[in-house]
Amino acid sequence: MKLAGILIGLAAVFNAGAKGGTLSSPDGNVTATVTVADSDGLTQCLLWRVAYKGKAVIADSPLMFELKEMPALGIGCRITDVGRRTHDETWRPVYGERSAIRDHYNQMDVDIRDEQNRRLRLTVRAYDAGVALQYTFPEQSTMQTFTIKAERTQFRFTANHTAWAVYSAQGVYSRVTLSEIKPNCERPLTIELAGGPAVAVAEAALVDYARMRLQPVAGVPFAVESMLAGDVQAKTPYSTPWRVLMIADDACGLLEQNDFIRNLNAPCAIQDTSWIKPGKVIREVTLTTEGGKACVDFAVQRGLQYVEYDAGWYGHEYDNASDATTITVDPKRSPGPLDLHEVIRYADERNIGIIVYVNQRALERQLDEILPLYRSWGIKGVKYGFVRVGDQKWTTWLHEAIRKAADNHLMLDIHDEYRPTGYSRTYPNLMTMEGIRGNEEMPTAEENLILPFTRYLCGAGDYTICWYSGRVKNSNAHQLAAAVVCYSPWQFLYWYDRPAMYKGEPELEFFKHVPTVWDDTRVLHGRIGEYVTLARRSGDAWFVGTMNAVKRRQIDIPLAFLEPGREYTAHVYGDAKPDGSDRLGVTTRHCTVDSTTTLTGDMASNGGQAIHLIPVGR
Q1: What is the pTM of this model?
Q2: What's the mean per-residue pLDDT of the chain?
Q3: How many other C-beta atoms can be found within 10 angstroms of the C-beta atom of residue 242?
């Protein structure tokens, strides 16, 4: 999957003493400095700071660990050596928001030794998109096994900037100042500095460590630090996940650079990925043979690729007695009957895949038994429900469960509180995950317009788009646009809907044709909580989604991203009543455009616009 790669040593390792070193991004806009100095009454503390285009973003901030039955690591130390190198590679993901991703950074490896003769290496990478740092505990006789009680990676900002905080993975975001941040703040944490830039504090490559969230730093204004979900047991050599500071001129730039997280993960570990297939999914909840076949027929008719049997097909999901190796319908959910094998056969004949939901209770007891069994049945994927997340034990268990699914050629959707840190690069059978306040919760338009600049910075989100449900608060044009804005390689559509509800609405042609993965993505414009426009390309066709909130808005959509000199047919779907008086109505129009055209969307305060652009003559 690699297009080209080079790894060049820029300089031999040199002794930096206590002076540390400064690292710049390839374009020179991002700089990170690591030093050792006295700070907060601590002697010879390891510190870092970050600037963007000459503007201080992070002031000198301590980096240290509190260890069980050992002195803290990161104070009373000195820098012994600094090594530098650069890396420039372009790689092809199995799927993504772009068909090719450039991984270009400068790296600085800072070796530290403390008064107890313990060693630590701090690896800092400077990308044009921001900075990442990782700690490595080398193999050493002075510290072979150890327990991390707390990690103190601090981000000391220079003023009381605006931030977008949430305290559970599916919670409601709030616009706050840094001084109002409370413990257990979710990542990514997006922060807007007055006059720019915008930044986001995030985590990458979390596999066998405790999850990081953020908390305020006692006695230090405008600062946050890492907050682990539990102790970490480790044996040297050992490396932590990456701590990430995404940086861009504005929030749109953050979204356009969101491959940063994936770049910090290991390359694909699956040799043959031909069985990994993105697509659109409809949920089957009648838990019957008849209902499953109806969903399969609907999927064929409406351009979907999968049908998912949700909770209850093997019994009551919260009952430990329920056996996920059996097809035993929960009578509280459905009277049945369900012949799942017949549905799988029927679907397979029509090139539709079947996905099944399994709750955490059965997963923990039966994982090694059910995965090969489901593969033998012809199931294509599993939705892991209510998995335990956070502490080291369950983080390790979950990522092992992803790898075991790959061994059995099963794709995955992880639901509830799990948020991505880029592992789908290494194991792309991890198609999507929740950790998002999607249509299941019926969010407001304003809530939806925070997500692209926060949650979607770290990876795919299973938003579960609805259409017919009367509980949806936003317009149907807003829902159409969500299929472009809300990235998910498995995109669940018609979440609360049934095939019998379909009335032949012409605007649903957009759902039929829209892909779930892309060759190129452009963020045209947007403001957090107000509006956003994304243009995404699949082959030679483009799809444009604009979602709006807060007030009625007319937004210009310049089509300069189109191939110059080529005409396209634009199928435009918008709010029938931009005054907001008709949530369900969608107006459709068709016109010929080119790269010089600017289209305008007149959108309700909870509205949107979706555009499908096809080259003329194709």
Answers
A1: 0.96
A2: 96
A3: 25
